[in-house]
Write a structure and sequence with these properties.
EC 2.1.1.80; globular; 10 helices; protein-glutamate O-methyltransferase activity; 279 residues; Rossmann fold; Chemotaxis Receptor Methyltransferase Cher, domain 1; 3-stranded antiparallel beta sheet; SAM-dependent_MTases_sf; 10 strands; Chemotaxis protein methyltransferase; binds S-adenosylmethionine; alpha/beta
């Protein structure tokens, strides 16, 4: 199946409008291959037919969801970019634990959670630093636009290979080994799962439904898929849901420029919210 320039442009605009994902010309082959299974699923010969299906014959948004699930890139790992977790373990959590005026619970958000490795890594790091804290004390919201990855995340089940970045002691403490039909897999223990709440959320949605502010936000390796105006808007909105002195972690290639009045750099791809009112 091939995609014409006109078909690519149509779909590219549609995807951008619904997800914020900006696809340059050289992503044509990628779009073509990721969406080809949707065309086959519906028995459609051309990408223009698929576009018509999305725009005119998808009142419930079911195909939109399937299209989003097919188009997103979900690469992630446990303790990916480990300096963020070290920073939390060595600086943020000890200070939080000792602060008599701390707001409770400690609230964290994994804003593009994919299959959940980032959120569970956050949960393990927090529990290791504050072993007496339970789900009343630590709340981790983990959201993504892709419903497939979210259901895998909520299951808490990973192959041994996927879990290979979890230190052995943590693996023993926080995961069960699969048996019989699940040999070769591990599953997050109920304690770990109780700290993390998975929900569907499109970062473009405005306003976000969260009522309370966060101490820590991980918004990593998702802004790279967005264009500059979308990124700038998100920086501002993320500042709006961070507590004063809260931290925002970005992916290693997502540096923030021009927001010095709202965020101050606190480490490599770590930004601390100054807590100024945003206008
Ligand atoms: C590469 S993964 C990053 C996972 C994790 N944060 C990490 O750094 O390992 C990017 C995730 O962003 C999600 N995503 C893309 N556009 C989104 C949007 N508009 N709203 C919410 N999530 C989105 C994708 O579904 C995907 O799971």
């Amino acid at each position: 199946m091939t995609i014409s320039d006109a078909e690519f442009r149509q779909l590219r605009e549609f995807i951008h409008a619904h997800t914020g994902i900006a696809l340059s010309e050289h992503k044509k082959a990628l779009v073509c291959s990721r969406l080809s299974k949707r065309l086959r699923h519906h028995g459609l010969p051309r990408y223009s037919d698929y576009y018509v299906l999305l725009v005119e014959n998808d009142p419930e948004g079911m195909e939109l969801m399937a299209m989003i699930n097919a188009i997103t890139t979900n690469k992630t790992d446990f303790f990916r970019e480990p300096h963020h977790f070290r920073f939390l373990a060595e600086q943020v959590f000890p200070a939080y634990k000792q602060n008599p005026h701390r707001e409770r619970p400690l609230r964290m958000w994994s804003a593009a959670a994919s299959t959940g490795e980032e959120a569970y890594s956050l949960a393990m790091t927090a529990r290791e630093a504050m072993p007496s804290f339970n789900e009343q004390d630590i709340r981790i919201l983990a959201t993504d636009i892709d419903t497939d990855v979210l259901s895998r995340a909520a299951s808490g089940i990973y192959t041994r290979a996927q879990a290979s970045q979890i230190p052995e002691a943590l693996l023993r403490r926080y995961f069960l080994k699969g048996q019989d039909g699940h040999a070769g897999e591990v599953m997050a223990k109920p304690l770990l799962k109780s700290l993390v709440h998975f929900h569907w959320l499109n970062l473009l949605e405005d306003p976000w439904p969260m009522q309370e502010k966060f101490d820590v936000i991980f918004c990593r390796n998702v802004l790279i898929y967005f264009d500059k105006p979308t990124q700038q808007k998100l920086f501002q909105r993320l500042a709006g849901v961070l507590r004063k002195d809260g931290y925002l972690m970005l992916g290693h290639s997502e540096a923030m420029h021009g927001w010095d009045n709202i965020f101050k750099p606190a480490g490599y791809s770590i930004y601390q919210c100054r807590g100024k009112k945003i206008t």
